[in-house]
TrEMBL record:
This is Family with sequence similarity 167 member A. Belongs to the FAM167 (SEC) family. InterPro entries: FAM167 (IPR024280), FAM167_domain (IPR051771). Pfam families: FAM167. Signal peptide: none annotated. It comes from the Eukaryota.
Amino acid sequence: MRLQDQQLARQLMRLRSDINKLKIEQTCHLHRRMLNDATYELEERDELSDLLCDFPMMSSFGLSTPLKLIGVTKMNINSRRFSLC
């Protein structure tokens, strides 16, 4: 009986560890996608600013909403430093 309890405990600990690893991988993937999207938007804005001299800042070139929600600001992205508020 004690041996079975220990085996079950080990199995549960492995499952818990696997679930935590999957959560971390998923979170990293989502953050990577958000940062790639923000980088792409900034590069696109820079390319357009090279083509057009005096165009007003359009709201579509601002930060994406998910980045704003986690506290990343334009200044942080432009200087390649990311901070969370």
